[in-house]
Fold this sequence. Notes:
Elements: E1 14-16, E2 23-25, H1 38-58
Antiparallel strand pairs: 1-2
Amino acid sequence: MGEPRSPAAAKPRLVRCPACGGDSVYAPGNPFRPFCSQRCKNLDLGAWASESFRVASDTPPDDAPDPEAPLQ
Ligand SMILES: [Zn+2]
């Protein structure tokens, strides 16, 4: 008889934290997964929100005339 092998008891699955790039435990025990911590989760959500707001306000409508286009 060898050692008992249970997949559930194996090493915790580690993924890369999208915010800091560090190891993050991807398991029910980590409520912030795939982030490694609440801090990283908040950082990422904040960056995403500010990025989308910035893009939305800086992007001109597609049908806006281009002031640099030469008239023909
Ligand atoms: Zn992190």
